Amino acid sequence: MDAPTSEMRRLTVRLRGGLERYTSMQREVEIWVCADVILADIQNRLGIPKGEVGLFVLDRQIVDESARVADASIVELYPMFGGG
Amino acid sequence: MPKGYVGKILHVDLTSQRIWTEEPDELFYRTYLGGPGIGLYYLLKEVKPGTGPLSPDNVLTFAAGLLAGTPGPAVCRFTVSAKSPLTGTAGKSEAGGWWGPELKMAGWDAVVIRGRASRPVYLRIRDGEVEIRDASHLWGKSTGAAQDLIREELGSNSIRVAQIGPAGENLVRFANITNELAHFNGRNGLGAVMGAKNLRAIAVLGSGKVEVDDLQAVAGATRWVSQNLEGHPLAWGLHRDGTPAGLVGMNSAGALPTNNWNSGVFDRAADIGGSALTETILVARKGCFSCPVRCKRVVQVDSEKFQVDPRYGGPEFETLAALGSNCGIGNLELLAKANELCNALAMDTISAGMTISFAMDCFEHGIIDEADTGGIKLTFGNEDALLPMIEMMARRNDLGAVLAEGSVRAAAVFGQDSARFLRHSKGQEIPMHDPRVKTGLALQYALSGYGADHWVAQHDPLYAQAGSPGLLALNPIGILEPVPPLDLSSRKVRAFYYSQMLTAAYDMLGVCVFGAAARSILPLDKLVGVVAAATGWQTGLWEIMKSGERLTNMFRVFNAREGFGTEDDAIPELFYAPFKTGPLEGKGAISSEDFKGALRVYYQMAGWSGDIGQPGDVKLEELGIGWTSSPPA
Prior knowledge:
- The structure holds two protein chains of two kinds.
- Chain A has one helix spanning about 40-45, and strands at about 10-15, 30-35, 55-60, 60-65, 75-80.
- By secondary structure, chain A is mainly beta.
- Chain A has a five-stranded mixed β-sheet with strand order 2-1-5-3-4, with helices on one face.
- In chain A, strand 3 and strand 4 form a beta hairpin.
- Chain B is globular and about 65 Å long.
- In chain B, strand 7 and strand 8 (about 130-135) form a beta hairpin.
- Chain B has 25 helices and 20 strands.
- Chain B has a six-stranded mixed β-sheet with strand order 2-1-6-3-4-5, with helices on both faces.
- Chain B is of the alpha+beta class.
- Classes of the chains: A mainly beta, B alpha+beta.
- The interface of A and B includes residues 21, 52, 54, 55 and 82 of A.
């Protein structure tokens, strides 16, 4: 985990629908990231394979993987879903 | 000697009790493969335009997929086809489980049923023997009780029973067909067609095996899936969490059908989602014949209020949403009970939930009242209403007799402005996927040849991200670039059209969408390898895709005979308006102009006449089905 600096941002990441297996079954983790990261970077950092996240929600707005975070953002990641 | 398939089709006329065998040549199988390909062949050959779906003249076909019964991975499915009493279109519905493979092990690729028995009967098929048996003692019984009785009198607990329940007997237009009590030919009301023929069940036991050309290669593909399952995020997710895993995400997107689609946000979604199910009532994970994915849920409840029998499996996402959020109900134990009840009565949970939610909307707006409902306060979220409403529909009691006709016909009875609460395409209630967050679903609903359905093609998010497993898996059919979920340009239509061909071919082959690309693990090169290794055919993806295109055109031709045209390629008005609540409030409305434009593009890509949306004689000849242009006289 990166050591926090004044240029870094603190995020809350919530993992749902089984994605918590990438965070030792923790459904909510707090991470520090550089100011310029996008959600795809966060997904990569958490070790979630590309394509497994089907829905990115950033501060209650649906976004895509290229969205940038703000300090104290809440990121929610949901698995790919293709019908049932 | 045929490889991969048996080469025999069983024909039964229930009116005359005549039973005979047809042995089509290899060209037949190579053209129609299996499943709905065989079903549509007989519909187009024999069912005259205007035939009543519940008349003896409707032709009901149970056809295993081409690969069913081989040891290939996730290729076990079979299809029931007939003219649908719900939509009036050609109808078809797939199921997994064991029944399809068992039929082939008993020596048949398909069973084609005509006529109507004079009293309730069931078919017993044991290897080459076929017998029409009395089913009077089964009539009115739950599916569980009937399966027990059939197994007891035939002396085998291994016998596979495909059957209707009381809903099918009572001709509920969304009655389904179950096998093993927990696998369903769910949609299109084909259980009512069985009921109209006085056919309660088809019980099958086979001791043979399906010959394949290269057993090592076919079985090797299954081993490969088993060995790589855990490393494939989508397939492993299906195994671990099943389809309910998507429910909470849909809610967060603001797109979980809630209160008859009047909202996309349900405040109790977490109570009925995949995690809640896994942590509270899940007792086992099960699967189908020769499928390593094992995505089926088994639940059990033994509380003060509810007891739920695990024999009936567990609710899928569609059920949890249709009977749950869509009716405003967030009690997981109640939903497990409602699922069990629908399964014991053999009634489609999607149409059941959607028809109840339609009635709830009518009740909330004063179109019907407690005098109509027999005192039931039919408001969204009323937990006390759910189980009685399911029983009333299946038994056709009181208001249930109206609702058993499906929501569209019920609206015609209710009158006033109740039609504004309908959500259907071609008369079939829409499943639980909002096209305002994935526009390909609008194309699926509108262009499906059998009413609104959510597995006409691959879902948009699967090919929306560059480098994702879903997109990479679809590269072999020419989907090379990501297409955003909300795109409705020709790029989306093209991706839809190509994946529609693939998905239709899956149905013909017996491939489960939860086992193969793009939703799951089996890549297309390996699938083609399984087809070749099973049959010994020198074949490829081109031939397989063209088979899917052929099937799509067969539906179109049948439906044109029945009077369906471009005006029926429609989606509910609801989707032309933005979301009213949640994170997408004020957003998401599909442009009517864009959608109609996309339909025109589709017709042209499909080679259909742009103004009438129909394949011409030349297109049908190109697909090798020129004969379909002449309906039976």
